[in-house]
Please model this.
Amino acid sequence: MTDDRETLPPDSKLTTTKQRWADEGKFLTGRAARPDTERLPPGQHLVRDWPVLDLGVKPSVTPESWRLDVGGAVEQPLSLDWAGLMALTQTRFLSDIHCVTTWSRYDNTWDGVATRDLLAACRPTEAARVVVLHSYDGYTTNLDLADFAAPDALLAHAWEGKPLAREHGGPVRLVVPHLYFWKSAKWLRGIEFLGADAPGFWEVRGYHNRGDPWREQRYSDDD
Ligand SMILES: Nc1nc2c(c(=O)[nH]1)N[C@H]1C(S)=C(S)[C@@H](COP(=O)(O)O)O[C@H]1N2
Ligand SMILES: [Mo]
Model:
């Protein structure tokens, strides 16, 4: 899982544009929101459709060919196939999506495996601090272990009761509702636990390392 860079698709127009937004600080409002009283984070607008964002490729992965390798600082490395994923406790969560490009989408129903149940199966060691997600399109993103372990985070294989569409990361994607959606890796291929941080695709291209929408952590230097 170290060769992501070689398998990355060439920069698409959107990739180039989003990198420029980070350089310019586009969409920053300078306001702060209170998550308890305001459902829409600062600088976001509500959409009813569901936009598709990717690096210009949508990998073709079937449930039959899908694998998920879980390794690094864990007591029990896992290599899950579809049956292995389905054998884990299945959970349904309802959550909102907040994308750094300023759209938010309310009330998404997800089915899958809660990250807490995955953590119970792989048992991170004392050394584990950071989780790096690896995807079939070469995308990576990093999360603090505590963010990955959020009570409403899951490995999702269904949306609104139907199999997750390929364009949205099917067969399996991560969903971490309390952070900007770029942290929710689509076409999930690997989960790696590390003792030290390892910024991913957008994090090394000007985006914030954590990405909390309530603190408007869009870009690297706005913390
Ligand atoms: N593997 C992978 N995951 C990814 C991305 C990607 O390009 N590749 N894009 C991220 C970004 S920037 C966003 S906003 C969401 C978009 O998810 P959606 O297309 O289902 O709306 O996926 C995130 N996860
Ligand atoms: Mo995004």
Q: What stands out?
A: The chain has one domain: 10-50+68-215. Residues 13-24 form the longest helix (12 residues). The pocket of MTE (ligand 1) is lined by residues 50-55, 99, 135, 137, 139, 168-169, 181-182, 184-187 (CB under 6 Å).
